[in-house]
Write a structure and sequence with these properties.
By secondary structure, the chain is mainly beta. Helix content is 8%, strand content 35%. The strands form seven sheets. It has a five-stranded mixed sheet with strand order 23-22-24-25-26, with no helix packed on it. It has a four-stranded antiparallel sheet with strand order 3-2-1-27, with no helix packed on it. Strands 4-5-6-7 form a four-stranded antiparallel sheet, with no helix packed on it. 40% of the residues are buried. This is KIB1-4 beta-propeller domain-containing protein.
């Protein structure tokens, strides 16, 4: 007769804790370095036990994010510059987007935003980038995706999206609770959306905001805590969108208060940058500690202004700060208080406090048209390739894997 109160040998073996810590550290590191390991896989390995956590280096950022189109699907990966290795970004399977499934119909995917450990993908009709069908917010850490309709209704292309968790909804960190702002139709139209509140996210509707005729925005920054989005126009004006919440009236885009009464936006810039402003093709806007900043990059050849007293080199970068207490209210600064800013082709700037030796303080990190990372010392404005020893890498935009390091307002 078998005593059912006593576990069998097989059951006792199953109940005993697995000796994970006995695995040789070199073997563990070799497994973790296998091609195809995702960020989520790597984080899970480090969470198994204290010994494994000590053996595996912590995930380090910044990373370069790339979206690769295969024969039947699109997949995303990041290259961690401090770790000098690639991680795949899985969402339950290796394919982020399968163009042949559901509504995609052999579609084209591209990156249109990155922040808070997530990134945004626009799904365009095949053969054209002028028609966006869907927007997908991807959280590779949790393996989740949020699908949204297109603010353009399939009639225009989405250029860029900024997004953050919706602080008015609970639970705040739920993957469906997001507030996003989109620039679309050649950067001339703006829309926003709340993805929370129940129901399917695909059924949520974007709200279009009226934009003054002729306005075209080079960049935008999102202050989620203040429910504000800031827009930098091609002519140098700065506008603000106050997002409606509760009993607030409908959202409108207005010039910054100090700029409302001067029709000439260049007067807001200190000399000689008032003259330089119209010549700057590449401009970005971001927030740091509640203050607005701009980054200008001269994408033209060497330029002489006036009688030659002011020169701009090709790829020279300027950082300007907005000061409400002075006029002109925009002037150049030569540091960022020990922070650095990362500029992406299709994502808004990210401000970080350097925590790894590879990232220098008071620098601008950007990506050239070939996808090569560059670094600019703000004090000199000069840029050079950001190439680490034995490391050549390219990417479409920057990726930071934690909420606390991706805020645009550090």
């Amino acid at each position: 007769m078998v005593d059912s109160s006593t576990p069998s040998a097989s059951k006792r073996h199953a109940m005993a804790p697995a000796p994970w810590s006995d695995l040789h550290s070199e073997l563990l590191v070799s497994i973790a370095a296998t091609d195809g390991v995702s960020l989520r896989d790597y984080a899970s390995l480090r969470a198994v036990c204290t010994t494994w956590r000590a053996a595996l280096a912590p995930l380090s950022y910044p990373s370069l994010l790339s979206l690769v189109q295969g024969r039947r699907s699109h997949s995303a990966s990041v290259f961690s510059l401090p770790m000098r290795r690639t991680f795949h970004l899985h969402t339950g399977s290796s394919a982020i987007v399968d163009p042949e499934c559901n509504f995609y119909g052999r579609a084209h995917a591209r990156l249109v935003g990155s922040g808070n450990g997530r990134f945004a993908i626009a799904i365009d009709a095949r053969g054209t980038r002028s028609t966006t069908l869907r927007i997908i917010l991807v959280d590779p850490r949790a393996g989740n995706m949020v699908q949204l309709g297109s603010p353009a209704g399939g009639k225009a292309s989405v250029c860029k999206i900024v997004f953050a968790s919706n602080k008015s909804l609970n639970p705040r960190n739920h993957n469906d609770n997001w507030r996003a702002v989109a620039l679309y139709d050649h950067n001339s139209r703006v829309a926003y959306i709340d993805t929370g509140g129940g129901g399917s996210t695909e059924d949520k509707k974007w709200t279009t905001v009226n934009v003054a005729d002729g306005n075209c925005y080079d960049d935008m920054a999102f202050n989620a805590e203040g429910d504000r989005a800031y827009f930098l126009s091609s002519c140098g004006n700065v506008y603000v969108l106050l997002m409606p919440r509760g009993g607030r009236p409908a959202a409108v885009i207005e010039p910054l208060a100090t700029l409302m009464h001067d029709p000439n936006p260049t007067t807001a810039y200190a000399a000689p940058y008032d003259v330089v402003s119209p010549k700057m093709v590449t401009k970005h806007i971001f927030l740091r500690q509640g203050s607005l900043y701009q980054v200008w990059k001269n994408t033209n050849a060497n330029v002489k202004m006036g009688s030659g007293y002011f020169r701009m080199s090709a790829d020279e970068i300027f950082v300007l700060r907005y000061d409400t207490e002075r006029w002109p209210c925009w002037d150049v600064v030569k540091d960022l208080g020990g922070c650095s800013v990362f500029l992406g082709k299709s994502s808004s700037p990210v401000v970080v406090q350097p925590v790894v030796p590879e990232v220098r303080a008071d620098c601008v990190y950007w990506i050239d048209w070939l996808g090569v990372p560059m670094v600019c010392d703000i004090a000199t404005g000069a840029s050079k390739p950001w190439v680490l020893p034995n490391c050549m890498c390219k990417g479409d935009c920057w990726y930071f894997g934690h909420d606390d390091t991706t805020s645009i307002d550090v």
